[in-house]
Write a structure and sequence with these properties.
elongated, 369 residues, alpha+beta, Heat Shock Protein 90, 8 helices, five-stranded mixed β-sheet, 7 strands, single chain
Length: 369
């Protein structure tokens, strides 16, 4: 750093001497002008550097715009004081000296303003980089969790299928009831694996932006009725009451019927899975308060979500179950992440809040006009 400063000073002296020599100024004038200008410049630089270092040692470092203003004032002060001192030494008339002061003041103001504008741009860029880095760290953390958790969810049903297949091959079980139960369990585990793989494919498709939506006018109520019918079997098996409060008519939305139905299916599956037997899940179409979006909400009786976890509900592989017991068949924790991705692909919005004995997931999708 010291060497670079020395090189800069030497280059400045050489350039000043060359210009003065080409102008054929007297040697005494050259020495006086160079001494005044470079003396003032080094003093201004030293003072500015000391101010910045003092702030750094105090632990109360100012904002970037303030630091930029100080840095800009170093050449402005150097130029102003040096030019005025040199002009005074050269016996410039009072009128010319006043004109020089006005010009220097204007140029100095422009220099400080430019430094502040640059500082604002740098500060905005710094904030954007910080946000991008935080987003990248969160994404990388989610990816690591996803790999670990999905590996767990793949190993568990595979181990069960392998154990039962070996038992059947070795003749360990032979009575018809046990064999039938083994076959049914293997089929169920295979279905679970298939759903998990489908979720992974859907998630990768969303992240790669490979699935261009075929947008059309679709009746929202019909999709909700179809989703309720598909989720009704699982809800009935678990003893969960499933109902829709849809009113009459219903809005039309702009979107892909397949993707919107997938959103509803994932939300209903999540609600039924977390609602205990004897509980209820409702699907509601919101009022017409929002003229630009159709509002659909799914209300369950899951018991609520901890306030600290509400912001993580849509994260990859989040289940809200630290134990992650291997006996569940709720998927890889990807359903809500996929639902959010599909909603955002429709230029919509999804959120969740605790309400009553459970949670309300609310989806807003653009209306057809």
């Amino acid at each position: 750093m010291t060497r670079r400063r020395s090189v800069v000073v030497a280059m400045g002296l050489g350039l000043a001497g060359l210009v003065a020599a080409l102008a054929r100024l007297p040697g005494a004038d050259i020495a006086q002008l160079v001494g005044i200008s470079f003396g003032v410049a080094l003093l201004a630089y030293g003072a500015g550097t000391l101010v910045l270092r003092a702030w750094g040692r105090s632990g109360r470092e100012p904002s970037l715009p303030v630091r930029a203003a100080v840095v800009a004032l170093i050449p402005v002060a150097s130029l102003s004081v040096g030019a005025l001192a040199a002009a005074r030494a050269m016996f410039v008339s009072a009128h010319d000296l006043t004109a020089l002061v006005v010009v220097v003041a204007g140029a100095g103001t422009a220099g400080v303003l430019a430094a502040l504008a640059l500082a604002s741009e740098l500060e905005a860029a710094r904030r954007e980089v910080a946000v991008a880095q935080a987003r990248e760290r969160a994404l990388e953390r989610s990816r690591r969790e996803l790999v670990a958790w999905v590996s767990h969810d793949l190993r568990t049903p595979l181990a069960g299928i392998r154990a039962m297949a070996e038992a059947l091959d070795d003749g360990v079980v032979s009575d018809e009831a046990t064999v039938a139960r083994y076959h049914a369990t293997m089929t169920r585990e295979a279905d679970h694996l298939g759903r998990l793989i489908d979720d992974l494919f859907e998630l990768s498709r969303l992240q790669a932006r490979a699935g261009d939506l075929v947008v059309e006018r679709i009746p929202l109520t019909e999709l909700i009725v179809d989703a309720l019918a598909a989720a009704g079997v699982v809800a009935e098996t678990k003893g969960v009451h499933l109902d829709g409060r849809l009113g009459t008519g219903g809005p039309e939305v702009l979107g892909s019927s397949r993707e919107v139905e997938r959103i509803l299916h994932n939300l209903l599956d999540n609600a039924v899975r977390h609602t205990p037997s004897g509980g209820a899940v409702w699907v509601e179409i919101g009022d017409d308060a929002d003229p630009h979006h159709a509002v659909v909400s799914v209300l369950d009786q899951c018991g609520g979500i901890a306030a600290a976890d509400l912001d993580r509900v849509f994260d990859l592989a989040y289940r809200g179950d630290p134990a992650r017991s291997p006996g569940g068949h709720g998927g890889g924790g990807l359903g809500l992440a996929i639902a959010r991705g599909l909603v955002e692909a429709h230029a919509g919005h999804i959120d969740v809040r605790n309400e009553g004995e459970g949670c309300r997931f609310t989806v807003r999708i653009p209306r057809a006009r």
